[in-house]
Amino acid sequence: MLQLFPRKVIGLMILGVALTLMFTPQQLSATTSRSGNVIFIHPDGTSAAHWGAARMLYKGPDARLNWDRMSNLAVYLGHMKDQLTATSNGGAVTHATGVKVNADSFGLDEAGKPLVALSGKPQTIVEEAIAAGKATAIINSGMIHEPGTSAFVAKSPSRRNFADITKQIVESGADVILGGGELWYLPKGKAGRHATAQQSQRTDGINVIELAKKKGYTVVYTRDELLKLPTNTKKVLGIFAADDTYNDDTEENLKKQGLPLYVKSAPTVAEQLQVTLRLFSERRNGFLIVLEEEGSDNFCNYNHAAGCIEAVKRADDAVGVAMDFIQKNPNTLLVTAADSDAGGLEVVGVTEKDFPFDKPVPEKSKNGSPWDGRDGTGTLPFISAPDKQGKRFPFAVGWSTFGDNTGAIVAKAHGLNAQLLHGTVDNTDIYRLMYRTLFGKQLAK
Length: 445
Fold this sequence. Notes:
single chain; 445 residues; alpha/beta; Alkaline Phosphatase, subunit A; ten-stranded mixed beta sheet; four-stranded antiparallel beta sheet
């Protein structure tokens, strides 16, 4: 009889069958998954309509954003334990731990005890990454205590305990901490690079910037200082504004005060990510970066259309930086998800006859919802970038609320394990996907 396989090969095949019978599919995947780097970008408050507005304005209706070019997507479901629409803090806690929480949670359960994550450990995914010796970064365009990122490394009975949360972030051990909020680093009466003595808010007398320096952080305050950092810099604390790095208010109020949308000396989130990736490129044990563009939430909550769309564009620029990195480093996952739909933005696209380029758009629709032109209420329409035929189109932005809604939120993934994101995804699954990629372990549903 013809021997198809040598005895040694047959023995190995039998052993493989035996192992398959011994382990469940989940256990098998847990032993065979490849681990890699993770970049989580949280473009806060963005629905498909927000991305659509940015695409039309900056690229044109026939073109594509970086976000559009990500390989995989899923409809995102983000309800909390006690309400349908997520809060910024509750949504972030779920992303950080993989468990459902109440809307007021900031890392604690209903009894005020630290949460146990889906992994079974009393740590967020960033805290577990730090304990495993992986490089970690927290990046935010808002004040550093913004929950979309800070809930990955801090816990508090209230999201409004800004001073304590800021201190916890610096004490967390994260390698890179970038954002605004200098006034919460400094004790009252102490002036900083951005905050005046009158603005500084800490009442405990602690100078958290000095604390960071003692922990080995190199402190930078501007885009130029960040971009000049040597590649061998181990720990970085970037503080780029007294408050947020943007000025979130209505168009009319910003015009009265003569304020720009963003602080001019502050780096964009894309620039912050680019520097962080340069610092992490030689880290052999992998890394986890959590980045939030907060302006896309805050501007929309003020129904500031131009600021909102600018913020979405900045988030998209960061997506582009991550995708360029993945092209050269395919062992990296990029995942994006918002937790709510800020302001209920919709694009009102009609003909030039309805919205002449040289006349203000109507202030309201027939049902009373407010409309914005490019400079706010009662101003000229936005003009799209050209389509394939070179034609530009007028449009307005309509709003449903000032707050956050449960809208048409889409999660996306690109790179390592991106194929696992498809169909409809729960907010807890964002953690599950990040965990599988970072640690090579599939967690049970």
